[in-house]
Amino acid sequence: MAHFTVLTGSETRPLSWQTLQTQLEISGHTTAVVSLNNVSWASGLDAAADALAQKVGPTSRAILIGHSIAGLVLPALGDRLGAMSEIYVAAFPPQRGQSFFDRLLSGEEIYDPTWVDGYQSLIRSKDPLTTHRHFLDYHLFHDCRADTADLYWKKSELPLDVIYSTPYLSELSLRSRHYIVCASDRTVRPEWQRHAASLLPYASVTEIDCGHCPQIARPVELAQQLLLAANHLDA
After folding, report:
1. Are strands 30-34 and 62-67 parallel, antiparallel or unpaired?
2. Which of 82, 85, 122, 134 is 20 to 30 Å apart from 186, CA to CA?
């Protein structure tokens, strides 16, 4: 039996992972979902990772799952918890010696350009579920049920400047890893996901034919991939 801990991305509520949790628990595993919003980022990424580790607590046979931005925190949290393995879901693995901003400025084409063009006006809007509903549905929830944004979207409250500007200075630990590429993603480019996965040490790679939020659009298939990855990582 493994313990799966999900670190959520910045744009969806923890509740969006409930169906996936049920699927994993039916298979005999335990689960937890932790939001990056559950800790303070005022003292920087390392202090936030310490706080996340305290919230998660020590668990045997721990498998960490990071969605989207949470990938930047996954190795640091894995080191603190002594995790067995890490699984990235359309996520941003850190690159040693570089911040996420460094990578964007160096020309890495990580995001879909139309997501970048519309995101600033989204976060400035006082009623984004009205003013930017089509934008959200197109980029995040195009393969989900019609009321998904109402149920599961939340405006990010994370200090993205802190997270994106912090370089990852450590070498990635000798730990099994897996990357799940979301092949129809309209937020984080699938081509970039494949490239990032190819650079991730000790990583295997699979793909799922869905957009940025497989926990909502394809929870059963995502659970199957996570279980297969866990079996492979444990082999």
Report:
1. unpaired
2. 85
**Other residues' Cβ atoms within 10 Å of the Cβ of residue 30:** 15
In angstroms, what CA-CA distances link 207 with 27, 127, 165, 194, 212? Answer: 21, 34, 29, 9, 12
Nearest by Cα to 190 from 179, 174, 201: 179
Judge whether 37 and 9 are in contact, CB under 8 Å. Answer: no
Q: What is the CATH number of the domain that holds 104?
A: 3.40.50.1820
* 108: amino acid identity, one letter: E
- Compute the C-alpha angle 52/56/61, nearest 5°: 130
> Which position has the token pair 């799966």?
4
What is the total count of domains within the chain? 1
Sheet strands side by side (includes 30-34): 30-34, 3-7, 62-67, 85-89, 176-182, 203-208
Walk along the chain (235 residues) and give the pLDDT tens digit of each residue: 899 999 999 999 999 999 999 999 999 999 999 999 999 999 999 999 999 999 998 887 899 999 999 999 999 999 999 999 999 999 999 999 999 999 999 999 999 999 999 999 999 999 999 999 999 999 999 999 999 999 999 999 999 999 999 999 888 887 899 999 999 999 999 999 999 999 999 899 999 999 999 999 999 999 999 999 888 766 5
Residue 17 structural domain: 3-234
Residue 219 to residue 43: CA distance in whole angstroms:
35
